[in-house]
Design brief:
With about 180 residues, the chain is of the alpha/beta class. The chain is about 25% helix and about 30% strand. It contains five helices and nine strands. The strands form two sheets. A seven-stranded mixed sheet has the order 3-1-2-4-5-6-7. β1 and β2 form a beta hairpin.
């Protein structure tokens, strides 16, 4: 089985607790107007990678404490995501965090994913009445995260800015991107 990738950052410290392997999956049909990663929306974009190759890339990365999945929308590739998460959990002590725009009721449709994930970060615009209706995994809203950013230069030369910027940093990023 394969999975469609938007970007990989082997070591990030702003996409969950501790040092993490960051995976941005490609494809999101939601088209949120305030999307953090609009380049990751096109389901035909990015590139394919086998679950096995990605798994080996993760476990060969020294010093990480977990894996963070973002996108696009990771749950739009749920079958492949669950297969990868299962491999990680069966053979490592790495924690798994998922950033998603799915709602709590939609998440309940994926019980195996919920069993495998240690943390889920929901888009801050969730309906608050559905929040915290799960005992496991730990769930929080994106506006509850620390406001930190990282800048990475990827293997292909692209610049990836990741994390949750404050208002000042958002302005700097907009200036940087517009030039």
């Amino acid at each position: 089985m394969s999975i469609r990738i938007h970007a990989l950052i082997p070591t990030t410290e702003v996409n969950g607790p501790g040092k993490r392997f960051g995976i941005w999956l490609q494809g999101c049909s939601r088209k949120c107007p305030d999307c953090y990663n609009p380049d990751a929306q096109d389901a035909a974009g990015g590139y394919e990678m086998s679950i096995e190759d990605l798994y080996h890339k993760i476990i060969s990365t020294q010093g990480i404490e977990g894996v963070s999945f973002s996108g696009g929308e990771p749950l739009e590739q749920a079958e492949a995501l669950i297969e990868l998460m299962t491999k990680i959990k069966e053979s490592t002590s790495l924690t798994i965090l998922i950033f998603t725009a799915f709602t709590m009721p939609q998440l309940k449709e994926y019980p195996s994913l919920l069993r495998l994930a240690d943390n889920i970060v929901l888009n801050a615009k969730q309906e608050k009445e559905h929040f915290n209706c799960l005992n496991r995994p730990s769930v929080c809203l994106s506006d509850q995260l620390p406001q930190d950013i990282e800048l990475h230069i990827l293997e292909n030369g692209d610049v990836q800015i990741t994390g949750f910027p404050n208002e000042y940093e958002k302005g700097l990023i907009e200036c940087f991107v517009s030039k």
